[in-house]
Amino acid sequence: MAKILVVDDETNILELIKFNLEKDGHLVMTTTGGEEGLRLAKMELPDLVILDVMLPEPDGLEICRRLRSDPATSMMPILMVSARGDTLDRVVGLEMGADDYIAKPFSPRELSARVKAALRRVKHEKPALMTGRELRSGGIVLDTEKFQVEVEGQPVSFTPKEFKLLKILMSHPGKVFTREQLLDRVWGFDFNVDTRTVDVHIRYVRQKIEPNPANPTYIKTVRGVGYKFSENTGSSE
């Protein structure tokens, strides 16, 4: 059973989603308001948020952006729902940080399958070993409170952006982040930089943590997509 928050201003759609998710055994919270949805997401920390794009202010895209910019909810799975089937809408939603997108009208079976897939991805993500305030993986120790990184027992200086980038990747080994997602989470969606900035900072981080930056062990490039932190730090690809 998962705890799921559904935010949609169409009460008939809200009730339909709630009915079908509860039939699958989930605990479902609902609201028609964007601000209330943000409040519930931050207070209840649900396992999944189902978010309508076409909400009155703030709309679903803005809510998604705010959730992704808050460390407490930045990794929360988000399924966007919209009556607009435009490819551009889907792309914008995914670039904002949504994990998946479903167009109205949808069948209960499709909704159930999307929800199961999203929850399964979260369950299978293997976080780095977290000891108190520290993230550990291989020879890397990242202290989340002191903003310090040690590599093979030696302190290494990181800029704030480099630190945040490494923290995001280390927190979710095996999860592939697009350049757009990393740009949004580290620099903020409205920051006037492009995705090449992500590549440059990845190179800087690799130079500081990798035994051989030209053949990285920790931060892997997923061609045509983005980057991930290796689940097996004992081998290289």
Automatic annotation (TrEMBL):
4-aspartylphosphate PTM sites in chain numbering? 52
Query: What domain of life is recorded for the organism?
Result: Bacteria
| InterPro entries cross-referenced by the UniProt entry | CheY-like_superfamily, OmpR/PhoB-type_DNA-bd, Sig_transdc_resp-reg_C-effctor, Sig_transdc_resp-reg_receiver, WalR-like, WH-like_DNA-bd_sf
Which Gene Ontology biological process is one annotated for this entry? Answer: regulation of DNA-templated transcription
From the UniProt annotation, which stretches of this protein bind DNA? Answer: 132-231
Return one GO MF term: phosphorelay response regulator activity
Q: Which GO terms describe its cellular component?
A: cytosol; protein-DNA complex
The residue ranges of the Response regulatory domain are 3-119
Where does the record place the OmpR/PhoB-type domain? Answer: 132-231
Q: Which UniProt keywords apply?
A: DNA-binding, Phosphoprotein, Transcription, Transcription regulation, Two-component regulatory system
Annotated PANTHER family: PHOSPHATE REGULON TRANSCRIPTIONAL REGULATORY PROTEIN PHOB, REGULATOR OF RPOS
**Known role:** May play the central regulatory role in sporulation. It may be an element of the effector pathway responsible for the activation of sporulation genes in response to nutritional stress. Spo0A may act in concert with spo0H (a sigma factor) to control the expression of some genes that are critical to the sporulation process.
Query: Know the name of this protein?
Result: Stage 0 sporulation protein A homolog
